[in-house]
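As a warm-up, study this chain.
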Amino acid sequence: MTSTDTNFRKSKHSIPIDILDDLCSRFIINLPPEDRGNLVRICFQIELAHWFYLDYYCTDDSTKLNPCGIREFAAHIFQHVPQLREHIRNLDEVLDNWREYKQTVPTYGAILLDTDLTHVLLVQSYWTKASWGFPKGKVNEDEEPWKCAAREVLEETGFDITGLINKQDYIEAMIHDQIVRLYIIGYISRDTKFQPRTRNEIKACEWFPIADLPANRKDMTPKVKMGVSPNAFFMVLPFVKRMRRWVSERKQKVFRRTRHKSMGEIESCNGKNKPISQGLQNEIKEYQQNSEHKYKNNHGGHSNTKNGNTANGNRKGGKMAKRQLFTPQNMHSNNFSPVNKDNSPTNDTEENSYVMNFVAPSWANFRFDRRAILECLT
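Now compare it with the structure written out below.
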């Protein structure tokens, strides 16, 4: 009897049979026929089952199960599955070959988000019963990471992301000594038809609300909102928080761009108003000159200017009388008019009346029609 057999016999009852049945039905027995004879491929599935066991069964107070290492867990699986029992004697060698292969083979895929950045596309495998994850897979030899991600997404969903990938926009995690990199692809219509290209690999492709995904193992939000156990998303958990952060940052950038665009429209409107402002300045200047001229005439001692009856005075006075409109601010002042009601010159405060609060008459009630201005700019 080998040391492996001895160690297994000492711990064979540490995992109940019903739990082993559940784990094997989720991850092992539904493997495609071409993978059932590949021990390395089986070890990857055993690793997924081990993670699931540690995350959900060992943390459940009702089961009171103790955590175990991958080697002890693999021994239970190899002994429990009839097709694997013949390899139990070589378990150490099988695990060594698997570890060596795993260290050189990262996994690449994509996080597909809808147009509102509120839903994410998840896929369900045939051999991972009731579990959901991102479309991803192992990289081939000499294959670039982003090309591997595009290939895997195309195989598992039928959707080509080759022209949508930003090679610098991804989330990467080291999960149990394995590199997993997921490129983020946003703004995909939820009306897109997803059709997996590989047989007996992907069972379903569905959109899930990002807000309803579990943030930790004990988060019961998906159970309450969707009727799905949080255990079904154990392969998604390591990416949920960073995915939400990415969405939040992207929405803030869109908001800032929209705000800057609006401010740009206002600045454009201000630029268009420059000729109007110059015309206003010219009119104010003309008004000041006319007021100064009349003041000098009224204090010059000429008899023909006493009542402002010169030709020039009539012209200027008429113009001033016609356009003499004042704002409410000026109306509250006692010196709101440069002349008295009897058209006689005022005292020394008259000079101040020409200098103090006045508004160009033609612009007293002017209002910008912002909508019309913006329509002209578009």
